[in-house]
Amino acid sequence: MKFHATAARLTCAAAAATAALGLSSTGAADADAFVSLPGGDLSKTLSDGTVVHVRLDGESAGIGPSLGAIRRTASVSGNAHVELSGGTTAVGGSIYPGYTVGCQADISGDGADGGPSAGTTWSGGENAKPTAGGNVGGNLTLGPGQATSFYVLDGEERDDFGDDAHRPRNKFEGADGSVSWSGEMIGLTGCAGPAQARAFVNVEVETDSVISWVTLWGQPFGLD
Predict the structure, then answer these.
(1) pTM for the structure as a whole
(2) Is the separation of the CB atoms in 202 and 168 below 8 Å?
(3) 202: how many CB neighbours lie within 10 A of its CB?
(4) Pairing mode, strands 51-63 and 40-45
(5) Three-class SS of residue 78?
(6) How far apart are CA 100 and CA 85, in angstroms?
(7) What CA–CA distance (Å, rounded) separates 122 from 100?
(8) How far apart are CA 156 and CA 161, in angstroms?
(9) In angstroms, rounded to a whole number, what is the distance separating the alpha carbons of residues 41 and 39?
(10) Stretch among 11-25, 45-59, 81-95 having the lowest mean pLDDT
(11) Closest CA to 115 of 20, 42, 48
């Protein structure tokens, strides 16, 4: 998936979207359940006094009919916004949206204060973030007690040598940036019990004085 595909639309303006609750008209047995999620809002003050404000809005999930351990699916959408104020001069940053998925695993909690215990690494405070590594795309296989994270963006940009490189982020300059994604698929196999997912927004912030990470978590939702 690349940024020019409709599945990952970038926008520089703040966006808001709503999703209707209910079932599609194809019939209850085969229908997706579309759930509007509350998103989230987080402000962190960095060591140089810079205030990082991260918002997740327009978040929704279309939950497909469960086939037990064979297949669980969801189509997810959302918008992430970052605003920097105070402190020293804001150079810019990068936004890394993604999802954590767990099979019979607790992925609830406030990430900066402990967060999901499975599939994530926490260094505490403003540096806490999920361990998604370079994983892009939501085709996952998980067993009981397992969780993993993945990114939804796969953008092309030039590396230090002028070659094309893929990065799971939207990079911005200055004091604000935003990104939107729509119709990203989560496909989970191998999980016979309850399964959950939740959005996260990792933000790398750069000012004249510091480079730091801030993570905002969305609300968990079931994949059953």
Answers:
(1) 0.77
(2) no
(3) 24
(4) antiparallel
(5) strand
(6) 29
(7) 14
(8) 14
(9) 7
(10) 11-25
(11) 42
